[in-house]
Write a sequence for this structure.
C-alpha cells in the first residue's frame, strides 16, 4: 500500500471503530429501555447478567442487525466527506491521481472488514449466540413461557410420523405420544404416555402404551402389543430431529450446511434455511456494498453539505435492509431461489453504487 492508501485507511479504521462503538451503544440502550427494562425490574435480574447478555449479543448486533455495515457506511461518508470539504480530493485529482486510485485504501479496508465480520460471526458469534439464548431462557420472562409445547416429526425412517403433545426439549422427554406408519402391507399405530432419549443406549424409549398392527390381508385385524418399556421405532437422533430448530446465528456455516443436508435426507423443505446459509456470506459482504454507496455521496458534500450526503446514504441503507428481508422472506417461501434471495439486495445496491460512482464528476 502506498502512503495515500495508508493515510485514508488509517483514518477510515479510526472512524469505523468510533462508529461501531457509538452505534452498538445506541442499539443496546434502545433495546434495554424499550424491551428489557420492565423484565429486569420485575424479575430483579442482576445487572452483571444484563451486561453479560448484551455482551454476548454484540456479534448478532453487528451481523444480523447490520450495525457493522452501517458503521462502515457512516465512517466512509465522514472520512471522504471531510476530505472533499477540505479540498483534499480536489488537490489529489489536480495532481493526476484518479478517483478510482484515491479510494483504493477505503475499498480494501471494506473488503478486510467484511472478511473479519464473517470470521467473527462464524467462530465467535455462534457460541455467543447460544450463550445469549441460555441467559434469555434462564432470566427473561418471555423465554420462560411455553417450555413444554407439542412437536411433530414427519417422514421418519420406516414411514413413521410422531406427534407428542408435551415435549421438553432440554430434557428430551415427552408425554402423550402418538406414532403411526402407513405402509402398503400394514398400518401400525403406537400410543404411549411417555417418550425419552436414553443416553446410554442412544435410542428413544417408550413407556406405558400399546402397539397396534393392522393387516389388510386379514380384514385389518392384528395384534395389540402392550408396551411397558421398549425402544421406539425412531432411528433419528435428537441432532437429526432438531437440526433446523435453533436460530441460524447460533450455528457456524459448516454446521448449518450439515443440518440442511440432514433435513433434506428426511424430505423436509429447506428453502428458508438454505437462504439463511447463503445469507451468512451475503450479510458480511454488505460492508463492501456500503462503501460504494457512500463514496458518491461523500463526493457531493461540496455542493450539498455533509448532512445531506449522510441522510441520503442512511436512507439508501434502510431501503437496502427492507429489500433484503423481503427477498429473504420470498426465499423462505420458495418463491425465489435461496442463492438469489440472499444476494439480490447486495447485487442491486452494488450495481447502483457503481453506476453512481462512475457518474461522479471529478
Amino acid at each position: 500500500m502506498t502512503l495515500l492508501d495508508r493515510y485514508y485507511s488509517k483514518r477510515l479504521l479510526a472512524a469505523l471503530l468510533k462508529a461501531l462503538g457509538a452505534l452498538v451503544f445506541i442499539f443496546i440502550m434502545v433495546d434495554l429501555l424499550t424491551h428489557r427494562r420492565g423484565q429486569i425490574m420485575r424479575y430483579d435480574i442482576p445487572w452483571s447478567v444484563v451486561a453479560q447478555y448484551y455482551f454476548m449479543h454484540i456479534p448478532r448486533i453487528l451481523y444480523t442487525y447490520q450495525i457493522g455495515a452501517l458503521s462502515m457506511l457512516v465512517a466512509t461518508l465522514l472520512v471522504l466527506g471531510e476530505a472533499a470539504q477540505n479540498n483534499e480530493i480536489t488537490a489529489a485529482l489536480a495532481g493526476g491521481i484518479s478517483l478510482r486510485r484515491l479510494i483504493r485504501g477505503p475499498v480494501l479496508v471494506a473488503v478486510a472488514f467484511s472478511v473479519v465480520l464473517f470470521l467473527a460471526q462464524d467462530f465467535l458469534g455462534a457460541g455467543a449466540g447460544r450463550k445469549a439464548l441460555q441467559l434469555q431462557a434462564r432470566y427473561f420472562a418471555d423465554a420462560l413461557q411455553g417450555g413444554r409445547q407439542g412437536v411433530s416429526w414427519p417422514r421418519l425412517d420406516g414411514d413413521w410420523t410422531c406427534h407428542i403433545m408435551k415435549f421438553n426439549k432440554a430434557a428430551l422427554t415427552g408425554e402423550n405420544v402418538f406414532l403411526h406408519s402407513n405402509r402398503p402391507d400394514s398400518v401400525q399405530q403406537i400410543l404411549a404416555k411417555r417418550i425419552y432419549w436414553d443416553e446410554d443406549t442412544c435410542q428413544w424409549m417408550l413407556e406405558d402404551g400399546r402397539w397396534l398392527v393392522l393387516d389388510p390381508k386379514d380384514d385389518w385385524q392384528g395384534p395389540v402389543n402392550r408396551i411397558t418399556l421398549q425402544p421406539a421405532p425412531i432411528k433419528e437422533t435428537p441432532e437429526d430431529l432438531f437440526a433446523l430448530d435453533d436460530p441460524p446465528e447460533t450455528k457456524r456455516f459448516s454446521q448449518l450446511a450439515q443440518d440442511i443436508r440432514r433435513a433434506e435426507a428426511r424430505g423436509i423443505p429447506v428453502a428458508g434455511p438454505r437462504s439463511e446459509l447463503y445469507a451468512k456470506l451475503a450479510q458480511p459482504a454488505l460492508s463492501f456494498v456500503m462503501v460504494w454507496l457512500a463514496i458518491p455521496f461523500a463526493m457531493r458534500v461540496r455542493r450539498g453539505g455533509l448532512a445531506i450526503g449522510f441522510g441520503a446514504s442512511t436512507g439508501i441503507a434502510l431501503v437496502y435492509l427492507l429489500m433484503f428481508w423481503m427477498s429473504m422472506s420470498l426465499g423462505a417461501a420458495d418463491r425465489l431461489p435461496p442463492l438469489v434471495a440472499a444476494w439480490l439486495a447486495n447485487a442491486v445496491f452494488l450495481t447502483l453504487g457503481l453506476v453512481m460512482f462512475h457518474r461522479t464528476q471529478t
